[in-house]
Amino acid sequence: MVAENPLFRGGWSMRKFNATVINDIWPEVFFFTGIAAMVAAITELKIHNLAVQNSLLTVLGTVLGLFISFRTSSAYERYQEGRKMWTNIQIASRNLAQIIWIHVPIERTDKDKVQMSTVQSVIEKKSMINLVQGFSVAVKHFLRGEPGIYYEDLYPLISVLPRYASTVGPKTDADMLPLWAASEDQDHPLRDARPPPPSRTGTTSDLRTAVSSLAMEDDRQSQGGSWFRRGKMSRANSVDPEKALAEIQSHVPLKPARNPPPSSLLDYFPFLRIFLVLTKCFRRKSKHTARDAMGRKIKPSFTESNVPLEITIYLNSYLAYLLRNDWLKPALATGLMNNVASLQDTLSNLDRIGNTPLPFAYQAHLRMSLWLYLLVLPFQIVSALHYLTIPATAFASFLLLGFLEIGQEIENPFNYDENDLDLDSFCLSIQRELHEVTAHTMPDPSSFIFSAWNQPLAPADRRTAEELTLNADQEYKNSAHPDAAPGIAAIRRTLLKNWRDVDRITRQQ
Predict the structure, then answer these.
(1) Is the dihedral of CA 76, 77, 80, 86 positive or negative?
(2) Positions of the region Disordered (predicted)?
(3) Which terminal residue of the chain has fewer beta carbons within 10 Å of its beta carbon, N or C?
């Protein structure tokens, strides 16, 4: 997403230029400018007077401007709502991770009096937090019209989930669970999948077999590679976020985490699209590049995905598992359930935003009305502006068509366009936060509160907590108020002095 003002930050670049709508509106601007040039030339050369009365110019222009403003505002509202929904995912993911990591006990015994070891508890909780992280990644692929689970940033997080309903006996397609059946690949059947071999510390060759490694590498080359590997690894400051994920063997070659439509010269030099239109009937239709008649990329449509739903089902199942064993307080269980419900609600809202564009009849009628207005505009202003009709029409068409195209551009902000929301950045932010939560060691408050680093009663009493508790048998005294009775009375006197001092200091100009 390009959000900086190129006039003040970093200067212009081809990427920032491509983020404008000039690439999309230039054919129409060129067409209406040509009409204006023809009208001005015929009228000024006295060939024929094409001027007409401009009595309706102001009224129609005002009404059309209001409708275009409404179109742009409604699209921007959807853009902002999409950003709010991702904030909700971030908040709910953070809350779920904190409840699971901090409030689910480590030392515990189930209903059958089976003791769970500390390592087992940590592995269980960390695996469920990985599922929470996998939800945001699954939503990202769902919004981009990328079905299935076999992606480099998603598969390592949810590969632990069961594949078949039956855990004993032969595995058949009839026993395959919906999460895996929806992503089944006939070329790489799931029943041929094998769990990864045991890993040895310091090596990664044991994590994948030679055959699957070659298949995955071939697929990366054919798909263009990972989103940071593709043309960016040459930079010194490049990073590869997939290195922060587990390396899990997959029976299906994994797709890149980010796979935008391939770029071409048409995206950076839009004037070349005129040659694409002229030579359209002489070229074969390519199955790899989805472009319209003017050479613009066609946005992918939504495809149904059950991956985020399945993840929330497993999170709710984990909650039921904790409640069955009395490992979670009812109040905390309610909080965990509410946050899972928040993820489900957010998913439905994002689906609504992406799948409910403005009605086609409204968009088509608005665009046709604008075209008719710009087509008649030169005839109405040529008598007053003469040859200035040409730049005036060009400016008017650039302005009005630009706003109309901006509304079309940001109506669905979940794809790979430069103006779309940076979903990859949101997912990486959630990943960092969840790892920060699991890095918390849950220390006993007494291990850090009663130390020499803590001055709890400052500024009125600047003694450290270690000094205040040195003689625990004595009542608290404050040398600044020797007349106060030792104990709670002296503490209250100190807190009142704190309020007066802070009020005086913070109000000084």
Answers:
(1) negative
(2) 185-205, 214-233
(3) C
What is d(CA 245, CA 155) in angstroms, rounded to the nearest whole number?
A: 10
Are residues 353 and 410 in contact, defined by beta-carbon separation less than 8 angstroms? Answer: no
Tell me if 376 sits within 8 A of 64, measured CB to CB: no
User: What is the Cα–Cα distance from 13 to 265, expressed in whole angstroms?
Assistant: 15
Question: How far, in Å, CA of 483 to CA of 315, rounded?
Answer: 59
H/E segment holding residue 115: strand 115-116
CB 183 within 8 A of CB 255: no
Residue where the block lists tokens 């071939």: 218
Secondary structure of 192-216 in HEC code, one letter for each residue: HCCCCCCCCCCCCHHHCCHHHHHHH
- Residue with tokens 């200091």, as numbered in its chain: 505
Residue 292 to residue 258: CA distance in whole angstroms: 22
Percent over 70 (pLDDT), the chain:
78
pLDDT digits (tens, 9 = 90+) for 90-103: 999 999 999 999 99
The pLDDT tens digits of the residues spanning 394-422 come to 999 999 999 888 888 888 888 888 888 88
Nearest 5 degrees, angle CA 87-CA 88-CA 90?
65
Q: Which of 151, 430, 127 is nearest to 305 (CA)?
A: 151
- The answer to whether the Cα torsion of 34, 35, 36, 37 is positive or negative is positive
Alpha carbon of residue 379 to chain centroid: 47
Q: What are the structural domain ranges in the chain?
A: 450-506
Alpha carbon distance 6, 218 (integer Å):
39
For 89, phi and psi rounded to 5 degrees?
-60, -40
pLDDT of 467 strictly over 80: yes
The model's confidence at residue 433, banded by pLDDT at 50, 70 and 90, is very high
Separation CA 190–CA 178 (nearest Å): 13
In this structure, what token pair is assigned to residue 388? 């200035």
pLDDT band, very low/low/confident/very high, at 231 (cuts 50, 70, 90):
very low
425: Cα within 13 Å, side-chain hemisphere: 9
Contact 24, 404 (CB under 8 A): no
- Residues 106 and 441: their CA atoms lie apart, in Å, by 12
Collapsed DSSP state (helix, strand, coil) of residue 188: strand
Average pLDDT over residues 58-71: 83
Neighbours of 72 (CB within 10 A): 20
Is there a contact between 100 and 333 (Cβ–Cβ < 8 Å)? no
Residue 298 is given by DSSP the state: P
The DSSP result for 314-342, as a single string, is HHHHHHHHHHHTT-S-HHHHHHHHHHHHH
User: 37 — alpha (psi -120 to 50), left (phi > 0) or beta?
Assistant: alpha
Q: Please, is 192 exposed, middle or buried when counting C-beta atoms within 10 Å of its C-beta (0-12, 13-18, 19+)?
A: exposed
What's CA 376's distance to the chain center, in Å? Answer: 43
If one counts every other C-beta atom within 10 angstroms of the C-beta of residue 396, the result is 20
Residue with tokens 């491509």: 18
